[in-house]
């Protein structure tokens, strides 16, 4: 469902934003709107922009999309500069945002785990418990399907600056990965912060892998 078509004219590039102050502090961001990038996060965005510019060469530039969070828009600003594009022409959509963590938003991973046990599996990079009042993976899939349906008639490449969990769901939808039995949604493999993948005709190619050495990449999504 929602597949892209055409090797050079209808690709979707999905980028995971750079590290933030919440990531570095091991705090849950979820739907938090404004959590600024760290210096490492800006460096990751800079590397993404350089990699995507090199990949595209002199070819057409993608339409710019981002979740409506500050961290995604900061990352996009750096990438857009590399691509020679106008950040002000980017479109935002809350449906591209990260998993809503409800009552756990803004709290430290360690504090929540101390109260009720682990909430996050480091091996899979996925939450194992739903936050009170928060979303689960199927909720994310439904809103992302809505975004894909609403933009299905648009021609040309798109770049979407997203998050750790929501990006995995979108990549799963676009590559027709089977629904995960425990999480209720298709899920692409985890990628480090600062990574970009390209999907065309249901096939995924990772065109840039983030450095992945920051604490946040080992603790939780973004």
Molecular structure report:
It contains 7 helices and 8 strands, in the order βααβαβαββαβαββα. The chain is an alpha/beta fold and 222 residues long. The protein has one domain (12-219): Rossmann fold (3-Layer(aba) Sandwich), CATH 3.40.50.1240. The strands form 2 sheets. It has a 6-stranded mixed sheet, sandwiched between helices. A hairpin with a 4-residue loop joins β4 (120-121) and β5 (126-127). The longest helix is centred in the N-terminal third of the chain and has 18 residues, at 39-56. The radius of gyration is 16 Å and the shape is globular. The model is unreliable at 1-6 and 213-218 (pLDDT under 50).
Strand order of the largest sheet: 3-2-6-1-7-8
Contiguous low-pLDDT stretches (5 residues minimum) are 1-6, 213-218
Please compute the radius of gyration using only Cα atoms: 16 Å
Average pLDDT value?
91
The CATH architecture can be given as 3-Layer(aba) Sandwich
What CATH first level would be assigned?
Answer: Alpha Beta
Number of helices: 7
H/E element string?
EHHEHEHEEHEHEEH
Instruction: Kindly report the name of the CATH homologous superfamily.
Output: Phosphoglycerate mutase-like
Q: Helical content, roughly?
A: 25-40%
Termini separation:
25 Å
Shape descriptor reads globular
- The computed structural class is alpha/beta
The CATH topology is Rossmann fold
Tally of extended strands? Answer: 8
- In the residues, how many domains can be counted? 1
What characterizes the major β-sheet? 6 strands, mixed
Percent of residues in β-strands = 5-15%
């Amino acid at each position: 469902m929602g597949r892209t078509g055409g090797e050079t004219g209808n690709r979707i590039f999905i980028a995971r934003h750079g590290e933030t102050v919440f990531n570095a502090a091991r705090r849950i961001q979820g739907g938090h709107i404004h959590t600024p990038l760290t210096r490492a996060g800006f460096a990751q965005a800079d590397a993404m922009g350089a990699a995507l510019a090199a990949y595209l060469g002199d070819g057409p530039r993608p339409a710019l999309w981002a979740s409506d969070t500050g961290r995604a828009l900061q990352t996009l600003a750096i990438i857009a500069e590399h691509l020679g594009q106008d950040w002000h022409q980017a479109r935002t959509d809350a449906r591209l945002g990260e998993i809503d963590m409800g009552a756990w938003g803004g709290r430290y991973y360690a504090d929540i785990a101390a109260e009720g046990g682990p909430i996050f599996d480091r091996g899979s990079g996925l939450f194992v418990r739903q936050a009170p009042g928060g979303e689960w993976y199927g909720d994310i899939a439904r809103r992302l399907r809505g975004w894909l349906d609403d933009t299905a008639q648009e021609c040309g490449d798109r770049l979407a600056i997203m998050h750790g969990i929501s990006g995995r769901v979108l990549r799963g939808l676009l590559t027709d990965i089977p629904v995960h039995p425990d999480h209720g949604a298709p899920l692409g493999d985890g990628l480090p912060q600062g990574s970009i993948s390209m999907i065309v005709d249901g096939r995924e190619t990772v065109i840039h892998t983030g450095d992945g050495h920051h604490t946040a990449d080992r603790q939780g999504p973004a």
